Amino acid sequence: MAARHFLTLNDMTTTELENLVDHGSKLRKEWRQGKVRDSLKNRVLAMIFEKSSTRTRVSFEAGMAQLGGSAMFLSPRDTQLGRGEPIEDSAIVISSMVDAVMIRTFAHETVEKFARASRAPVINALTDDFHPCQLLADMQTYREHRGSIRGATVAWIGDGNNMCHSYINAATQFDFHLNVATPQGYEPDLELAKAHSAHVTLMREPAEAARNADLLVTDVWASMGQEDEQKAREKAFSNYQINSALMDIAATDALLMHCLPAHRGEEISADIIDHPGSVIWDEAENRLHAQKALLEFLILNRLD
Ligand code: CP
Ligand code: NVA
């Protein structure tokens, strides 16, 4: 049987995604109770990082260890990947020795190429275009705090980036409405937005997007690889900060999420992480639980 991959949320059905989110919550509860689980005993995850990470690396590595397996960190600096060995050759070799491969890289095409040649499941741990693992954690966090997100209004404020694209996919898969407010020139991929137009509205004004929203979400103004654009982006995005004034426009019990790392004083005001609606720290912790659920699903082909 060909390996299942997780390159975008569209690699799963809605039912599979909902089951993953529920399983993540179950694993969180069990782990907090100190229950030992060795579902991935002797299994190995290879983790290829071509960009920096704190949460993704710690959550995947800790997650494998907590399930009885292990994870190996591979950087292009120390592997032949950094010296130009073809991605397909690397995929054939690495996937012949491990049970799953996680990749964080620049071009989305790189994970697609790797997956096509891989005999083991491949997980997209962020590309320039998508960050589906973060959405598993975000959806789990929303569900734990507010129940089903079906029919809710979510406001994305800021850059039409990889996270925004994954929110667009999530809007259709989890059946919520996504208002996306970006400055001109920083919209998400228009083809993608069009394909999801039944669930996505592109806007210019943050206040319009946030009005009565059940969840406000943002991300850094300059993503990894865009460091040179920082100054220009600070100017373009100066009205796109989530602060208490914007939270006041949202629904009274609105939640706030940010995938982190956060730039306080830029996309979010310094105080807002401590706002009563902020679930940012749960969201970060849920990377661990959601990905443990994902690893079990992809490696064992079941959730129980
Ligand atoms: N949110 C997220 O993916 O964080 P890291 O870049 O620290 O992995
Ligand atoms: N959009 C950000 C997300 C970081 C987790 C980036 O790509 O740098």
Number of E-type strands:
9
Roughly how many Å is the radius of gyration?
Answer: 19 Å
- Label the structural class: alpha/beta
Number of domains: 2
Strand order of the largest sheet: 7-6-5-8-9
Beta-strand content bin? 5-15%
pLDDT under 50 segments (min length 5)?
Answer: none
CATH fold label of the largest domain: Rossmann fold
Q: Major sheet: size, sense and barrel closure? A: 5 strands, parallel
Q: How many distinct helices?
A: 11
The CATH architecture of the largest domain is 3-Layer(aba) Sandwich
Please tell me the overall pLDDT. 97
Topology (elements, then pairings):
Blueprint: H1 14-32, E1 44-49, H2 55-66, E2 70-74, H3 87-95, E3 100-104, H4 108-117, E4 122-124, H5 132-146, E5 153-157, H6 162-174, E6 177-181, H7 190-195, E7 200-203, H8 206-210, E8 215-218, H9 230-236, H10 244-249, E9 255-258, H11 280-300
Parallel strand pairs: 1-2, 1-3, 3-4, 5-6, 5-8, 6-7, 8-9
Helix pairs in contact: 1-5, 1-11, 2-11, 3-4, 5-6, 5-11
Could you describe the 3D structure shown?
The chain is built from 11 helices and 9 strands. The mean pLDDT is 97. The protein is 40% helix and 13% strand. It is globular, with a radius of gyration of 19 Å. By secondary structure, the protein is α/β, with parallel strands linked by helices. The chain has a 5-stranded parallel β-sheet with strand order 7-6-5-8-9. Phosphoric acid mono(formamide)ester is lined by residues 53-56, 126, 134, 259-260.
